[in-house]
Amino acid sequence: MKDVFLYLMIFAGSALMAYNIYGYLCFSRDVRKHGNWDREQRLFQIPILLLILFFIGYLIVGFFGKPDLIMAGILFGGSVFVFVMLLLIRRTFDRIQENEQLEVRLSAAEEASKAKTFFLSNMSHDIRTPLNAIIGYTTLANQEGVSYEDKSEYIDKIETAGRQLLEIVNDVLDMSRIESGKFSLERTCVNLENCVQEVSDLVRIQLEAKKIDLSVSCDVSHEWVLCDKAMLDRALMNLLCNAGKFTEENGSVSLQLKELAGSNESGSYEIRIKDTGIGMSPEFAERLFVPFERERTSTVSRTQGTGLGLAITKSIVDMMGGNITVWTEKGKGTEFTITVDFPLAEPQEEICSNEEEELSFDGMRALLVEDNMINMEIAQMLLEQAGFLIETAENGKIALEMTAASEPGYYDVILMDIQMPVMDGYMAAQAIRSLPDTRLAGIPIIAMTANAFQEDIKKAEDAGMNGHIAKPLDVPNMKATLQKVLKNASR
């Protein structure tokens, strides 16, 4: 009975030692993955050799020797000791890994905190600058004895500052959507030559005011491609506006579009935007596309901007599968080069919208659905100035009830806010589209909302709306959207 007990201890210890060898091999593999241990390679081999010798000793005693109680106890105790030590070492190593991971997270949190502080610092300056102008000129305009000419000038400057503030907000929101992966491209059939000409025409007046010459040239064989026109316009506009900002009077800016190569399916295009402006230092050029980066010079400090325009431009080009590079030299100017491939598209028939007669809004009745009283008052006055007769509703449920109770043709259009209590704009539009009277269900509905992203426009379409007008209201855009929707409804 005693011999059986001794052999059980020996074989149990052997099994435990075999497990210790396996555990050590796994442990040493994990340690090597954790870092570079080339210099300590031999040290890792020593314990495994000792463990194997220990295991061989077990087997020799178990099969060829006659163990006594002391030897069996020492061997078994040694196995338990090695097992406990390996367990403690493993736990220590795991704790070290946890601490390192915590340090990495702490470092990341500190970097995020610094980035947040840097972001808030930039935003505080860039937002307060136009806000200061808006509040300051509003105060001046409200003073007694201000002449009509001065008041008109103050209002013009308030409008300019308001547009600068809107541009800052749009840049920040776009950058946030890009970084969160919610920014996507919507490909449509686009004439590249027309796109380049339209963008250059938009900035030409601004450049001519600074006596900057703008030259545009196009050399393409396949002008019709599939791309996101709005995003391409945005990228080109950012680069052209930057060129204008940093080019002094009597300077020049050029925009060149060139087709490098083409096939039956796609074309490779190069867009160059060059200016004779102040240029940049080589150090700053390396950080040019980093968000919120702006070179600190006396000229740049006088220029409005968040430092997000180029970061957004690069993100757009990257999403298009293209590449953007920059050449710059202090005092000599800057040249941006975009190379990108676009799928070719069949030429489309272009319709000249100028030949169409404008639709008169005089006497048309619109239902304005808006829960914010200030927004309602502003929209109502602008629409009444355009000729509309306005009725209002404070939420989607009231708008639905007013529409259902009206005679077909009573309302010519419904202008629908989205975020409202009781019933939001999407639900109200779907409910109106479900009315049993098909003439009432077919009333044109236009979203008039601060939900201005591409996915918001798509969501409005899916809810049955015919158009989308973004807040803050741009009067020419609002009228153009109303013209388009009401003309389509009358056909």
Description:
- It is a single chain.
- With 491 residues, the chain is an alpha/beta fold.
- It folds into 3 domains: 183 residues, Helix Hairpins (Orthogonal Bundle); 156 residues, 2-Layer Sandwich (Heat Shock Protein 90); 133 residues, 3-Layer(aba) Sandwich (Rossmann fold), CATH 3.40.50.
- Helix content is 57%, strand content 16%.
- The protein is built from 15 helices and 12 strands.
- The strands form 3 sheets. The chain has a 5-stranded mixed beta sheet, covered by helices on one side.
- A hairpin with a 3-residue loop joins β6 and β7.
- The longest helix is centred in the first third of the chain and has 73 residues.
- It is elongated.
- About 1% of the residues have low confidence.
Topology overview:
Layout: H1 2-34, H2 41-64, H3 69-141, H4 148-179, E1 188-191, H5 192-209, E2 213-219, E3 224-227, H6 229-245, E4 252-262, E5 266-275, H7 282-285, H8 298-301, H9 309-319, E6 323-329, E7 333-343, E8 365-369, H10 373-386, E9 389-393, H11 396-405, E10 413-416, H12 425-433, H13 438-441, E11 445-449, H14 454-462, E12 467-470, H15 475-490
Parallel strand pairs: 2-4, 8-9, 8-10, 10-11, 11-12
Antiparallel strand pairs: 1-3, 4-5, 5-7, 6-7
Helix pairs in contact: 1-2, 1-3, 3-4, 4-9, 5-6, 6-9, 11-12
